[in-house]
Design a protein that fits this description.
The protein is about 60% helix and about 10% strand. The protein is α+β, with helices and mostly antiparallel strands. It is globular and about 75 Å long. It starts with a helix and ends with a helix.
């Protein structure tokens, strides 16, 4: 991605060109061209009169001809240098520098200024099929019932999702850039942390490759505790030394004490969590095995490897896992994308695909009100996806909603227009609604909570 090597080569080559130009100044070359023209005129005149050229004119003609040939050589040399620089850049970047990034182009088309009101600012007519039912819980109940009817078990965390991907039977990868759609921000909340998710306590437990990493983590917690206790003692001594009338200093010291106590509380909490889940030998080996599940996929994920010791690399790894869905979901994305692309010449922006239960919890904690807490969250099934209408004009929105509404009339999807600039679409397994008795059962269970 770095262009520095190419840039340097270009500067060096440009210097070579400068030296060549310096050897034969431009004004002299211009003069030589004029002389050559004059010689040609005289040569034509002399040729008519059949008079031989004088030695002086022959010399001038030879010099002028040499200059013209040299000009051609310099031009040709410069062309070769430019071609060489382009080849160097292509080697570094993996594609010709004049070729724009297709993904960046697609995103640019999504975000392109429409010159009119867009998103929630545009006045649109929302079809009844994309509005909430009179019974507000029915929307989620239909999706939960459909998932249960199909026997779908949502992934609890990334180790479970990795195992599903490795199995290669339930999920397919949704390319970042499809023919008529583009993934727009999928997996942005991925933390880069390797964890096991305990659904009962809703706690994320760190994963380790083996005993050595576990001990290193426990030793670090011990060192952090020692350091924080020493810092708290030092702050306490400073508080005692500060006069009661020095309110500003006392206020700052009390704030520092509060912050350190909170940090120490977090360290002690992490220590208890690790001790609880790694205490039993069987539980410890289960967690080590979950790490190995992630490591196996990371070593060769469709021909690419990811470093599990590097947080940015893990975030990319997790975001890619979150770019999977069920085959029926991908088919719907492609169908809607093709219709939208044909109508407006833009790729359809998709913001969410499959999620783990742990990732769903993180979304709720990050302030996403659409990431609801239900028994079976639609996105964890791999059947749901979100379309981003934030940049769409009124005509674009109404077209997309019309397409989704027709799919719902046909019994192929459950859908809703969310207020946070998304259309939530759920691909019903088998292309039909679940049995009503299953929906009623989910509704009764939801009402009992």
């Amino acid at each position: 991605m770095s262009e520095e090597p190419g840039k340097k080569s270009h500067e060096d080559n440009r210097g070579s060109e400068g030296r060549l130009s310096h050897e034969v100044p431009a004004e002299k070359l211009s003069t030589a061209e004029t002389v050559a023209e004059e010689v040609e005129k005289r040569w034509g005149s002399e040729k008519k009169n059949r008079r031989p050229l004088t030695p002086v004119l022959l010399l001038v003609f030879a010099v002028a001809a040499s200059c013209v040939l040299y000009l051609g050589y310099v031009k040709k040399f410069r062309g070769r240098l430019t071609e060489q620089v382009e080849k160097i850049k292509e080697t570094i970047t993996g594609r010709p520098p004049s070729t724009p990034d297709p993904y960046a182009q697609a995103v640019s088309k999504v975000e392109e200024d429409r010159g009119e009101a867009v998103g929630r600012q545009a006045a649109v007519e929302v079809p009844s099929e994309l509005k909430l039912y009179k019974e507000p819980h029915r929307f989620l109940a239909v999706q939960a019932a459909a998932a249960k009817e199909a026997g779908i078990k949502p992934p609890r965390d990334f180790p479970e999702l990795a195992a599903m991907i490795e199995a290669g039977q339930e999920l397919v990868e949704v390319p970042k850039l499809g023919r008529d759609y583009v993934l727009y921000g999928v997996g942005l909340v991925a933390t880069g942390e390797l964890t096991h998710y305990d659904s009962k306590s809703e706690r994320s437990v760190p994963l380790f490759a083996g005993e050595t990493e576990l001990k290193e983590y426990e030793d670090k917690l011990k060192d952090d505790r020692t350091r924080l206790e020493a810092e708290l003692k030092e702050l306490g001594d400073k508080l005692k030394a500060v006069g009661k009338n020095d309110k500003a200093s006392r206020s700052q010291l009390n704030a520092d004490v509060k912050a350190k106590k909170k940090e120490l509380g977090g360290v002690n909490d992490d220590d208890k969590l690790v001790k609880k889940f790694y205490a039993a030998p069987k539980g410890k080996q289960t967690l080590f095995a979950e790490y190995e599940t992630l490591a196996t996929l990371a070593r060769d994920f469709g021909g690419r490897s990811y470093d599990l010791r590097d947080a940015p690399s893990v975030k990319e790894f997790q975001a890619r896992m979150l770019s999977f869905a069920r085959p029926a979901t991908l088919a719907l994305i492609e169908e809607l994308g093709a219709a939208y692309q044909e109508k407006f010449g833009r790729p359809l922006p998709i913001t969410s695909l499959i999620r783990t239960e742990e990732y769903q919890r993180r979304l709720r904690e990050s302030g996403n009100p659409n990431a609801v807490d239900v028994s079976v969250e639609p996105h964890t099934t791999g059947l749901a996806f979100d379309i981003f209408y934030h940049f769409m004009s009124a005509s674009e929105q109404e077209f997309v909603m019309g397409e989704i509404a027709q799919l719902k009339k046909d019994g192929r999807v459950e859908a809703i227009r969310e207020l946070r600039d998304h259309y939530h679409v759920f691909a019903l397994p088998g292309g039909h609604m679940p049995e009503e008795k299953l929906v009623e059962k989910v509704l009764k269970k939801s009402a009992a909570k």
